[in-house]
């Protein structure tokens, strides 16, 4: 169950973004309210099935239009909560209720390797409950580790899962590197003293 995903920005640059949390990776199957429809990945039930399979393994049971609609509702609620917490605002109680309702469902329990009991087969409702429980875990402390990228021209939201709680950029290779280049250029040419 790998985290993060590839994005292509408006300029056509492809880059990897690790949001730091499963629930935010799910939120970024859409544009998280950044008005970039190119980021929408869940156009059909098959798209949702593919995303869930990438994260949880082969699904038992179909993913239909009803499941897709429910998933989009969960995604919208996660987006609302994450964006509010990123600016230290109280999230909409209706969005919190949606996340909590999904989290109350049967999820995909973690399993230790080496036992003889088979875990329940992943299906879309269990996978979505697992995403919602991750949102509860990530947002439970009032979003203390939910951040917005420090770059002036980026508004991506992420979960700072660094040990020192010091992550500043959505991606060091994208915004972090651009900020360092700008800082270096603004410092001007170095004038080394003659030998």
Radius of gyration: 19 Å
Q: CATH class, anyone?
A: Mainly Alpha
- Examine the coordinates and then state which fold CATH places here, giving the name of the CATH topology: Jann2411-like fold
- Which second-level CATH architecture applies? Orthogonal Bundle
List how many beta strands DSSP finds: 4
Count of helical stretches: 6
Helix content: 40-55%
Spans of at least 5 consecutive residues whose pLDDT stays below 50 are none
SSE order in H/E notation?
EEHHHHHEEH
Number of separate domains: 1
Measure the end-to-end span. Answer: 57 Å
CATH homolog superfamily: Jann2411-like domain
What overall geometry do the principal axes of the alpha carbons give?
elongated
- Major β-sheet profile: 2 strands, antiparallel
The strand line-up of the biggest sheet is 1-2
Based on secondary structure, the structural category is mainly alpha
Overall pLDDT, averaged? 83
**Strand proportion:** 5-15%
Oligomer: single chain
Strand-helix topology:
Elements: E1 5-8, E2 14-17, H1 22-27, H2 45-56, H3 65-86, H4 93-103, H5 124-139, E3 146-148, E4 157-159, H6 172-186
Antiparallel strand pairs: 1-2, 3-4
Question: Overview of this structure, please?
Answer:
With 195 residues, the chain is mainly alpha-helical. The chain has one domain: Jann2411-like domain (Jann2411-like fold). It is 42% helix and 7% strand. The strands form two sheets. It has a two-stranded antiparallel ribbon with strand order 1-2. It has a two-stranded antiparallel sheet with strand order 3-4. Strand 1 and strand 2 form a beta hairpin. Helix 3 packs across helix 4. The longest helix is centred in the middle third of the chain and has 22 residues.
